[in-house]
Amino acid sequence: MIARWLSNLKWILLIAIVAGPGFAYFMWTELETIKRIAAEGVETTAMVDGGESRSGRRSGTSYTIHALWTDANNAERAENINISSEYAHSIIQDDMLLIDAVQIKYLPGDAAAPVYVVEDIPQQQADKELMIWLGVGAGVIGVIGSAIFFLVGRKKPA
Fold it and tell me: Could you tell me if residue 158 is inside a domain?
């Protein structure tokens, strides 16, 4: 039983060598997008007409608000905006939204770019930075743990 557990741990550590830095890179690209939107984005007021929380089996709860606004081209836009748990807890009480409008930032020339609530941008950045460090940490633990497993498991010459 222990041998099987150790064998599985060895494979997990090997996977962490690649998956950890890959995850860190993915989070870094998202962090750079947030920084770009914070620096170059257009700020406007959006009306909030609802929200949603989703609980995953293994992951935590994710929160979104549904916002409506008029963009720089006078076109009506509606979008679900992801928000951090901390911000969600500050605007939700007894399953009711306490706000009906928020300041948002978006990139007018890039419809595929995400939209962020201005008040939530610092927390979104902090969350991504934490995930980057966790990914790097997983990679480092994978390298060190795999090295230990393979050095200990090596047969000594007779």
Answer: no
pLDDT of residue 58: 73
Flag whether 157 is in a domain: no
**Amino acid occupying residue 158:** A
5 token code pair = 């557990």
Q: How many domains does the chain have?
A: 1
pLDDT in tens, 16-48: 999 999 999 999 999 999 999 999 999 999 999
Where in the sequence is the domain holding 118, given as residue range(s)? Answer: 2-152
Residue pair 41/105 in contact by the 8 Å Cβ criterion: yes
pTM assigned to the model: 0.84
Q: Residue 97 and residue 89: Cα distance in Å, rounded? A: 10
